[in-house]
Sequence to fold (515 residues):
Amino acid sequence: MNADVHDLCGRPIIVGAGAAGLMTALRLAPEPVVLLTKAPLGVESSSVLAQGGLAASLGADDSPELHVADTLAAGDGLCDEAVVRRVVEAAPHAIDALRRLGLALDCAPDGTPLLGLEAAHSRRRIVHAAGDATGRELVRALVAAVRRMPSITVLEGMDVRRLLVEDGGIVGVVAVGNAGAVALASDRVVLATGGVGGLFADTTNPLGSFGQGLSLAARAGAALADLEFVQFHPTALDTPQRPMSLVSEAVRGEGAVLVDGHGRRFLADTPGAELAPRDVVARAVWKELAAGRQVFLDARQCLGHRFAARFPRIAQLCREAGIDPAVEPIPVRPAVHYHMGGVAVDGDGRSSVPGLWACGEVASNGLHGANRLASNSLTEAVVSAAWVAKSVAAVSPRGNRRRLPAIVPTQPDPAPVRPIVSKALGIVRDGEALRTAVAALLPLAESCDAASDPAAVALMMAVAAFERDESRGSHCRSDFTQRNRLACRSRLTLGEAMKTASAIAEPATPFARSA
Fold:
């Protein structure tokens, strides 16, 4: 929708148009809101690429208590149980709301949703659409609903570069579009910008998802939480394509097994085997690859020629790579898939900076702990959007016009950061590699060039990983292999991270500092 941006002052601004952003805008209706997105609506979001589905305790043999227990177990001691219960108990109602908005779930002849099984779930509780295209169908339904809603003004091609802050609170955003830079005044801004996969060489996320929402929040003074916890999906399609295509965990839920080049099932003796928590499976696959062995996902026995009917999108991706999963094992390797860390928020999505909320993957509310339970993320995005919208709507707007700052930050470029992050913040980490990364990232974060914002996010992640001297969930330290007795979430601001980084980097060698 075309609009004079000066007529939009005072409206809530939502930055990002994945499931979390779209749902927040819809939940705010009929209050007028502005939805800003870098890409055309419905394109370039991690939500679109989601294959598995939404976790909800809908089965006759399931219950919210079981779903809570599975989430807490996967989170390895760092989940906020109150948040977990709130999300899990709201999930079935959120599924009903999505169906009313037009999401066509895969259902049995009697109309009840078909339920899939994924790792670390004790029951089949994953609702899905179009087989393995749940994210695409979800976003399609939400985009159509947003297009029908006259209270939502969508500004496409708008890249938000800074949050404007006065007297410690948000007063607007600076965005750059085809017509240049513009300042939009609002004291109610919601970040729904996704994750950090674009900071890594191997990722299933869009390459544009490199933590820009985190950098916006951090430079506005917000506290970030649990940044060290990055989830690697164990089974990304092992081809040169970047971002990497995902081979959903639901394939393993149907019985597919992981084997090496000789057909050896190397997870057979692991508790849970292929359906162990993601961090366990990802490390096992990484260990095989580090030893020089290829890894394959073999679905020939469990699915065979039924593969394409159950997983049409994955079958298409395999065919494009020259692989027929009905008769061939699929080459796979781990790739960055989800960030448990994010903007530290309360149960209503409020950050530590007045006027700033966060929703979806960019937020950290304690649901996922140290290791996200599969398919809880889309559920979280849909459920928490309602809470964020209610909190935003309760704040009265002021809406004064804002001027542009003297300098508008340049378009961020994560390319210089990727090699540093990929080496130091991988599946298995160690203190010296993290120290070297901190020393390399600090001058980039302090600069004013295109790498500055991605480097600031990466620096905060590296500092948090260095400071956590234990192995827990997705954070694995080869030099601290045990868990600490006291489970404690991490929290820091950019200023704190910079100060700590200077102390960490001090013993680094000159070579490491200039790496």
The first strand starts at residue 13 and ends at 15. Residues 98 and 286 are 37 Å apart (CA to CA).
